[in-house]
Amino acid sequence: MTEEELESRLAENAIDFLERAIDEFKERPKYSIINFYSAVELFLKARLLHEHWSLIVLKDPDRHKFESGDFVSVSFDGLCERLRRVVQSALPDGVQRNFDVVRKHRNRMVHFFHHANDNRGAEIEAVAGEQLRAWYDLHELLISQWSPIFDEYSDRFIGIEEKLKGHREYLQAKFEALGPKIDAEKKLGVKFDMCSSCYFDAARVSSIIGSLHESKCLVCGYQEKGLDYECPECGKTSELDDGGRFVCFACGHKDDEQQIVESINEFKATKDNYFDAMVPANCSECEGYHTVVEYKDHFLCVRCFRVTEGLEQCGWCGEYNNGDMRESSYVGCGICDGAAGWHANKDD
Questions:
Q1: Model-level pTM?
Q2: What is the pLDDT of residues 321-339, one digit of tens each?
Q3: Counted domains in the chain
Q4: What domain range includes position 79?
C-alpha cells in the first residue's frame, strides 16, 4: 500500500469509530466510550502516519509487519510526545488533558464495571459532556492545525457535528435545572457566554489579567481562554481565540500570529534596550516560536494563553522561554538540542 492509501484507511476507520460511538451513545454507552477513544487515537496516528508510518510503531519498525498488523503501536503518551518532538505539531495542554480523560474512561469500561453501562442519567450526562469537549478539540485540530491533511473529510465532519445534536439535547435538562443559578449569578454581575462545546449560554467568564479571561461551562465542563483584541482595521473589539489567529467579526480582517505578537507586546524596543530584550520569547507549553510577549507586567503566549511572571534563558542557545530551563545547557530547549544534541551530531 502507498502512504496515501494507509493514511486514507486510518482516517476512514477513525471516522467510522466516531460515527458508531455517537450512534451507540444512548443505548450502548459502554461501546460508545470505547469507540470514541478509538477514533481519537486513530486520528492522532493518522497525523503521525502523514509524517512517516514508523512513528506509529513502538519499536523495531518493519514495513511488512506494519501492513499486516503484526506490530505494537505507541501509547497515547507516546503519540503526544512524537507529535510534539518529531512532527512539531504539539497538542495544546488542555486538549491532551481532555483526550486523556476519554482514554481513562475507555480503560475503565474495558477492565472494570462502570455506571454508564447501567444507563444512569448522571453518568450519561458526564459522557455527553466529555465527548463534546473532546470532539470540539479534535475538530479544531482537524480543520485548522491539521487542515491540509484532513480537508477532504470536511463534509464528514459536518455530518458528525449534526449527529452530536443528540448529545446537546441530552444536556438540555441539566441546562434548564441550572437556569435559576445562572440567572442569580447574572444579577450579581457574573458574565456568561455561549459554550463553544455544547452551545448553551452556561459558560461562566472570569478575568485573569487585563483583557485575558477564561470560561468554564456549568453544563458540560468545557474550559477555554480568550483575549479581547482590537481590530487594527476597524477598531472594533473581537475575541482572540487560542491558536494564534484572529478574524474580526465586524469587518472580517485577519491578523496572523506575527501581527498579533507585535500588537499585544507591551515591550517597546529602542536603541538603548534592544540587546536586553527578552521578548518575543518561546513557549514551552505549545512549542510556539516567539509567541510570548510582555503583557500587564506578566508574560503571555498569544497562541495558548499561558501566563507566567518571568522568563528563563536557555543555557545552550540563549533563547528566552517561559518554561523550566535548569537542564537546558545539556538537553536544550524547544528550538535547540543542547550540548547532548551537538555532541551527537558531531559524533555522526
A1: 0.69
A2: 999 999 999 989 888 889 9
A3: 3
A4: 3-170
